[in-house]
Specification:
Elements lengths: L1 H19 L13 H11 L2 H7 L1 E4 L5 H7 L3 E4 L11 H16 L8 E4 L17 H7 L2 H16 L5 E2 L23 H6 L2 H7 L19 E5 L13 E2 L3 H8 L1 H8 L4 E4 L3 E2 L2 E2 L4 H11 L5 E3 L16 H11 L4 E2 L4 H13 L5 H17 L19 H14 L1 E5 L16 E5 L6 H5 L20 H8 L5 E4 L5 H5 L5 E7 L19 H9 L4 E6 L15 E6 L6 H7 L49
Parallel strand pairs: 1-2, 1-11, 2-3, 3-4, 5-7, 6-8, 7-10, 13-14, 13-15, 15-16, 16-17
Antiparallel strand pairs: 8-9, 12-17
Helix pairs in contact: 2-15, 4-5, 6-16, 7-9, 7-16, 13-14, 16-21, 18-21
Length: 625
């Protein structure tokens, strides 16, 4: 009898430890349903651990010890926040894993999620492929291309051990004076909506509509931003007030969010802007009522950088109120990003005093954990070197080059009575290349490249300038002369067959890019006047938006909008010299004067210099086929 009882007890104990007993930690068992894992883990979590999961810090404010002690849910690299200048992918991986090991050593071992602004490729990282900014991708009208770019970006992000990209920006920029207009695909919500394929590229194709989804270790969590109306602010001022009725908000600024949720976007970031005077970071009607309840968004909502601080004016004037308003509105994770103890202590007091109900905390944590479980973070929390070879790979650079050439928009190609200037002949006696942007990789990449505001010069990362691309494209017998800002006499006496002038904007991001006049920075206009006054010229405008070009248009023989093409300048020369034809179409209206702004394609009085959708086409040159 004793022996039989021993066998029974041993069998029961075996079942117990194989999963039949309540002592087994269900949340660590990948065979369990996600909702059971979430419920099990949340049942074990203290209030402090839950609030820790709602906290996101910049890497500069974190240590592995902080990750462990406070159960911090997420880290990020803000623009330019890197392990060191020109850090290798191995150094990125070591840094991320160091923080992750801190999280895994906490009481419950909840892994953190690491986010970064990979908004045109993995743009913070040295030697990564820099794709065209969104305004250029909008000019391609090619959602499948954008999806491929998303997939390539995911691989490069994973190459550095990171699993969360703050992309895509699905703002509908309705005023080019806005400093973030280049982050918008178009002024037309239909074009913006079509480009939400970046989400499926980043995350993979979702088999279950509306449920957050990350399709494997070669994919990353995506983030649709900035909810909602950020592209419609008055006067194009960043973080300003979007004055529009419900019908306009729904039909212009909301459609891309419907589609993003259907594609299973994992997170949504809230906008700094206001809607009819109400700060979006405090707008419960739109965050909870519309996004969560009506659209059935199941991922988590994240604030922007110090976003809740800016609920008050001046920012951080009443932090307790800001925390209360932001959490009550439905924000689940707060991008603090520096002082974690202030946020954690403030929210803890608000919960303990019953100002913030526990059900709101539980909703936030449930959403955060859902994303972490669905992306397999509990099973694969640490990064390895599997994807290293994808960072800046030739395949990705070829893809970026394809995107560049498809984004080029030809606005003028000779006068009506004259033969077209483009495509340019590769074999010519002597050609002139001029302009501030011809030999400047930083300028052609724009903001959000290596640093937040972007950089000038050719030492920021790896890539090909437009000048280098021209040099590689022309026949070896062609004499190529580069002079950044030649005078008229130099041009007239140079015996040039033709000239390529590359001018445009200097890099900027966000508020620093707000611009009320949209003129081409000097010496750009002088360069255009001098060069085009002395020889047939093609002017290539490198910019994040349309600029004032009408005063010079008559003297320009051919005009190309190149947007912010990124690291692969050969894509520009692919179409200039006829290896491929021009196919790009304007993603937004090109104005005559800034007095017309804001002016959009659906306005009743529409009088543009070039309308949205405009773009001359060319055929490949016969000698390039």
């Amino acid at each position: 009898m004793g022996k039989k009882m021993t066998v029974i007890l041993e069998a029961l104990m075996l079942l117990f430890f194989m999963g039949g007993g309540e002592a087994v930690e269900i949340y660590k068992d990948p065979s369990q349903l996600i909702h059971r894992r979430i419920k099990d883990l949340m049942g074990k979590m203290s209030l402090a651990e839950k609030i820790g999961q709602m906290t996101q810090l910049d890497r500069t404010a974190a240590t592995p010890e902080i990750m462990k002690e406070f159960s911090i849910g997420s880290l990020l690299s803000g623009g330019g926040s890197v392990p060191r200048l020109q850090a290798t992918p191995e150094e990125w991986i070591d840094m991320v894993n160091g923080f992750q090991n801190g999280s895994l050593s906490s009481r419950l071992g909840i892994p953190m999620i690491y986010g970064i602004d990979a908004v045109h490729g993995h743009n913070n990282v040295y030697k990564a492929t820099i794709f065209p900014h969104n305004v250029g991708l909008g000019a391609t009208r090619d959602p499948k291309l954008v999806e491929r770019i998303g997939a390539a970006t995911a691989l490069e992000v994973r190459a550095t051990g990171i699993n969360y990209a703050f992309a895509p920006c699905i703002a509908v920029c309705r005023d080019p004076r806005w400093g973030r207009c280049y982050e918008s695909y178009s002024e037309d919500p239909k074009i913006v909506t079509a480009m939400t394929t970046l989400i499926t590229g980043l995350q993979g194709h979702n088999p279950i509509n509306s449920m957050p989804f990350v399709g494997g270790k070669n994919k990353v969590a995506a983030c649709a931003k900035h909810f909602v109306g950020d592209g419609g602010t008055k006067g194009g001022k960043n973080e300003n007030n979007t004055v529009i009725d419900w019908h306009g908000l729904r039909n212009i600024h909301m459609p891309a969010y419907y589609h993003s949720v259907m594609k299973g976007v994992s997170t949504v970031m809230v906008s700094y802007s206001s809607w009819n005077g109400k700060k979006m970071h405090a707008n419960r009607r739109l965050i909870t009522g519309l996004l969560k309840n009506y659209l059935k968004f199941k991922g988590f909502v994240i604030s922007d950088w110090q976003g809740i601080d800016r609920i008050t004016s001046p920012p951080h004037a009443n932090y307790t109120y800001s925390v209360q308003a932001g959490i009550h509105a439905g924000i689940d994770m707060i991008m603090v990003p520096f002082n974690h103890t202030e946020f954690i202590d403030t929210l803890t007091k608000l919960v303990e005093s019953k100002v913030i109900p526990m059900r709101r905390i539980n909703d936030a944590v449930r959403r955060i954990l859902r994303v972490k479980f669905l992306m397999g973070l509990f099973e694969n929390p640490l990064a390895d070197n599997t994807f290293l070879h994808h960072l800046g790979s030739q395949a990705h650079r070829d893809l970026a080059r394809e995107a560049v050439r498809k984004s080029m928009v030809l606005l003028k190609n000779g006068e009506t009575a004259d033969p077209p200037l483009l495509p340019l002949p590769k074999k010519a006696g002597r050609i002139l290349v001029a302009g501030t942007h011809a030999d400047n990789l930083g300028y052609q990449c724009g903001g959000w490249t290596i640093t937040w505001q972007g950089l000038a010069g050719n030492n920021l990362t790896q890539g090909t300038t437009i000048l280098s691309a021209i040099s590689a494209a022309v026949d070896p017998s062609t004499d190529l002369v580069y002079k950044e800002n030649p005078d008229l006499e130099f041009v007239k006496s140079g015996n040039f067959s033709y000239a390529v002038v590359v001018v445009g904007e200097h890099p900027y991001a966000e508020t620093d890019g707000d611009n009320s006049n949209l003129t081409i920075p000097e010496p750009g206009p002088a360069t255009i006047t001098n060069v085009c006054g002395g020889v047939k010229c093609v002017v290539v405008v490198v910019s994040g938006r349309p600029l004032l070009i009408q005063p010079y248009l008559r003297s320009i023989h051919a005009l190309v909008a190149a947007w912010l093409p990124g690291s692969e300048g050969q894509g520009v020369t692919d179409v200039l010299f006829g290896d491929y034809g021009f196919t790009g179409k304007l993603p937004r209206t090109w104005f005559k004067t800034v007095d017309q702004l804001p002016m959009n394609f659906d306005d009743p009085h529409y009088d543009p210099l070039f309308p949205i959708g405009f773009g001359l086409k060319t055929s490949p040159a016969a000698d390039s086929i």
